[in-house]
Amino acid sequence: MGRVMIPSESPPPHQELPPIHRDEDDGGTGDVGYLTISTTCPHASCLNRSAAATECCGGALVPPLNFAVVDAGVFRSGFPETANFGFLHTLKLRSIVYLCPEPYPEENLEFLESNSITLFQFGIDGRKEPFIDIPGDKIIDALKVILDAKNHPLLIHCKRGKHRTGCVVGCLRKLQKWCLPSVFDEYQRFAAAKARVSDLRFMELFDTSNREL
């Protein structure tokens, strides 16, 4: 079974993830490489059909809400529903970083188990502003998992893929040396009218020199 660990115009130019922690047995060259995301069923009879037309295993492959590629082997989204499992299967995920405090649904755990996906859970309260302090320690712990290539391909998600996911990705972008306006622009593309001043301030003040990273 998947092991449970408790402890969003054109995007800015692509930048590589900062140095990531690798073991010697992490594969030949240790390169993560880029994934080709299939929008069609992996079954041979469906390989040449579009996502809209594909009907296999109960229907078309549907990405989760607010799904996007963050970087090589790293994705983000809202909470995956059962209708999204076929799409997630094509990503060949090794790990999921879950940013909500609520227990993971049983059907999602079954999907993880059947696909040997590890679940890392960092329960961050999602209440609206006025927002109590964002738990920086949990953000750092989540980033440690994301920066470790052994966990890739990896999906980061909260409920809607906006605020908690946006904060984690924003802090990752700062580690990638993105300028603050680009960090904020990406966050606001997913949060839209629901952007939170507390999130923006947290990302602005995030210390990229933290020795734990």
From TrEMBL:
Q: Name one GO molecular function term.
A: phosphatase activity
Q: Which residues form a coiled coil?
A: none
Source organism per entry reads: Zingiber officinale
Enzymatic class: hydrolase
Q: Which Pfam families match?
A: Y_phosphatase2
Name of this protein:
diphosphoinositol-polyphosphate diphosphatase
State the residue spans of region: Disordered: 1-31
Q: Which PROSITE patterns match?
A: TYR_PHOSPHATASE_1, TYR_PHOSPHATASE_DUAL
The record's catalysed reaction(s) read: 3,5-bis(diphospho)-1D-myo-inositol 1,2,4,6-tetrakisphosphate + H2O = 3-diphospho-1D-myo-inositol 1,2,4,5,6-pentakisphosphate + phosphate + 2 H(+); 6-diphospho-1D-myo-inositol pentakisphosphate + H2O = 1D-myo-inositol hexakisphosphate + phosphate + H(+); 5-diphospho-1D-myo-inositol 1,2,3,4,6-pentakisphosphate + H2O = 1D-myo-inositol hexakisphosphate + phosphate + H(+); 1,5-bis(diphospho)-1D-myo-inositol 2,3,4,6-tetrakisphosphate + H2O = 1-diphospho-1D-myo-inositol 2,3,4,5,6-pentakisphosphate + phosphate + 2 H(+)
- Annotated Gene Ontology cellular component terms: cytoplasm
Q: What is its EC number?
A: 3.6.1.52
What keywords does the record list, in alphabetical order?
Answer: Hydrolase
Which InterPro entries does UniProt cross-reference here? Siw14-like (IPR004861), Tyr_Pase_AS (IPR016130), TYR_PHOSPHATASE_DUAL_dom (IPR020422)
Q: Which family does it belong to?
A: Belongs to the protein-tyrosine phosphatase family. Atypical dual-specificity phosphatase Siw14-like subfamily.
List, for all copies, the residue spans of the domain called Tyrosine-protein phosphatase: 66-213
Source organism superkingdom: Eukaryota
